[in-house]
Amino acid sequence: MSSFSHTDDKGKANMVDVGHKPLQRRSATAEGFIRLSEHTLNLIRENEMKKGDVLTVAEVAGIQAAKETSRLIPLCHPLQLTKVDVKTRVTETGVRVTAMARCTGQTGVEMEALTAVSVALLTIYDMCKAVDKEMVIGEISLIEKIKTDL
Amino acid sequence: MSSFSHTDDKGKANMVDVGHKPLQRRSATAEGFIRLSEHTLNLIRENEMKKGDVLTVAEVAGIQAAKETSRLIPLCHPLQLTKVDVKTRVTETGVRVTAMARCTGQTGVEMEALTAVSVALLTIYDMCKAVDKEMVIGEISLIEKIKTDL
Amino acid sequence: MSSFSHTDDKGKANMVDVGHKPLQRRSATAEGFIRLSEHTLNLIRENEMKKGDVLTVAEVAGIQAAKETSRLIPLCHPLQLTKVDVKTRVTETGVRVTAMARCTGQTGVEMEALTAVSVALLTIYDMCKAVDKEMVIGEISLIEKIKTDL
Amino acid sequence: MSSFSHTDDKGKANMVDVGHKPLQRRSATAEGFIRLSEHTLNLIRENEMKKGDVLTVAEVAGIQAAKETSRLIPLCHPLQLTKVDVKTRVTETGVRVTAMARCTGQTGVEMEALTAVSVALLTIYDMCKAVDKEMVIGEISLIEKIKTDL
Amino acid sequence: MSSFSHTDDKGKANMVDVGHKPLQRRSATAEGFIRLSEHTLNLIRENEMKKGDVLTVAEVAGIQAAKETSRLIPLCHPLQLTKVDVKTRVTETGVRVTAMARCTGQTGVEMEALTAVSVALLTIYDMCKAVDKEMVIGEISLIEKIKTDL
Amino acid sequence: MSSFSHTDDKGKANMVDVGHKPLQRRSATAEGFIRLSEHTLNLIRENEMKKGDVLTVAEVAGIQAAKETSRLIPLCHPLQLTKVDVKTRVTETGVRVTAMARCTGQTGVEMEALTAVSVALLTIYDMCKAVDKEMVIGEISLIEKIKTDL
């Protein structure tokens, strides 16, 4: 039966040794969603029309958060990201955030993509909280994870 | 019609001026959920029985993330938190995280509570990702927000 | 003859004691400039017309940098900023950045305003460096500094 | 006509993909200047004679800031610097700061050198602001940028 | 029997609630020692004579570390330090570091003073490690802790 | 006579150039000790029996601190750690902390191991300071340092 990689046989926390794994091209894409009221969605659309900043601030916050992942998640390894892309899309019921991260390294970048999505969603929450008391963040999951040899 | 507090009349990003608001006792509680497979839940319960660390690491990561909120969310004000509490509870289908933050300040602490929940959930995701490929993080929302005069 | 507040009588570095100063409302405004080529300025104007992000990313970076000031400047005191505003303006020869910071505290916020300006200018440099090899950052100075009793 | 590497065809912010570029030895040197009053310059010279710390604190702050570059500039890639050197030189009218950064990586280190210069200059500003109200920071530019194959 | 303030009755980690404590002037002084070889001590004395930087870099690192305390120690509250002072003194057998921290706050600053001492000592270790393989850091303890009403 | 690698011939601080050194597998182990009262040791043992968190929080803080080393120690190079392990052991007179760090890089990881030990010990100090006024941290030293060719 498979077991946690981040705990030893006594169940104690453990940063896994990735030192003997080969360098590979790693890519991961994650997404998530924030449910917003009709009123808030109209304000966001209006802000977009005025060339306003709401969604751009969220995207920038997501990119920066990807670079903070190993400082936020205690057992994550530091990685040198070669690309991060965070995109937002207004839907009928909220905003969907998609983040893609890439690196050449010894371990995967899914936590970086998931952290970017989470912080971008929190940033939208922050910017809309004065007008919307019913927001819910959810559906945060990994969409794709790829590794290819150099 | 109410509008965003974090954008000016041209829709540009803006850190709201809270300098003239009174100091008040502020408290906020948020929660969220990560859906896990039966197998993963059994491993977590077993880890708990062995006095293992999985949920403690998530709680500690959440507490620390609350203190990072204003660095992660671009338009958040820095706050001096006087208390943070993060708790995890294993359910039939996953783990529920609840976070409470408090400060005496000029603006609310809901973003701190929500950030603590989000990072605790990401930490659980990180520790379980070797054994569970179907995890989804969601239901992140504010449960309670209180302000009382000094 | 007046002398440095940040060094003791042997000339050694020293974080000044501000603990006995009264709490006051503090505000500071700083500005700076980045000289750009005609070609780069056209690209920035075009980006603005497309609702692009160049100047917004710089403004967000400046706001976030203001919150990092006491971590970047060794003898700066940590402050709880109550407002930060960073604005960019395209001129005939480059981009002018203005930043305003406010707090209620025991020491001034000019370093926060100056740090916001500097990092916003560096961010513009970063985004334009693929197309402009002649950029110069300068004219960074304090425009106004105000303190008022509570 | 060349265009911004950090924006996509809609003008949206974008951390460029450097994952397919070869590892190369990268080096960059930047400089900048802070204009100081005669009185302040005399105090700095006197501090130097007393083996005081003013310029050393600025140099250390610059070295540390170089390591923070990817956290301050939103679209900068994280890099593993192999060397940073920051030097200050008192002139007739102020202090000139020169910074050199090196790494073996897939993208250049000019932003690291420029950030080191900017933060060293801000640190001098901070240490002199009690005695000099006319300081101006400027002339921040790239002096040299080298890449060589491994 | 007195018990830990940082754990609840189940022994789980807990950031103590200090929100109802009065604001007081807080001060703490800590010290520590690094044992060095005769050869290393001679190099440090020579560096001092040349107006070199070894001990200044350690003092600056200590001041900056004091400001990082709540980010390094998971259950520490964020504080607004009003003063930090770190001093080093070469003895017959090593270097003694003393750090003093002050704030006006609801909880003490001993962890800030102890963290400043620890990081200043680690910085000396780092700068001497090429020449001294027998260094030991120790005797880190609190010397004095004061609180006075406003 | 050997001299400091981190200072130039004028004794000025200097981040050593490691860019021409080969990539090697690096490993370092450090340890340290905190002396605790009989009463405090009993509380820690009791906390362990209740599956409490005191020592786990210290271990997690140590792992995270290892990743912060180059930000705390001014002349340390940034490294991509591939493994960190921090363990605590209750003795008759206190708690012993051992930390091991590994990377594949151009310079050693002893500062990372020593920083992990120091911050884990400070975290124990923080959690026990309400009940123990006589704690002393010491005996922090390097136990082993290994480099092997790839």
UniProtKB/TrEMBL annotation, chains A, B, C, D, E, F:
Database matches in CDD domains: MoaC
Q: Which UniProt keywords apply?
A: Molybdenum cofactor biosynthesis
Q: Give the Molybdopterin cofactor biosynthesis C (MoaC) domain ranges.
A: 15-146
PANTHER family, alphabetized = MOLYBDOPTERIN COFACTOR SYNTHESIS PROTEIN A
* Cross-referenced Gene3D superfamilies: Molybdopterin cofactor biosynthesis C (MoaC) domain
Protein name as annotated: Molybdenum cofactor biosynthesis protein MoaC
Species:
Lentimicrobium saccharophilum
Pathway(s) it belongs to = Cofactor biosynthesis; molybdopterin biosynthesis
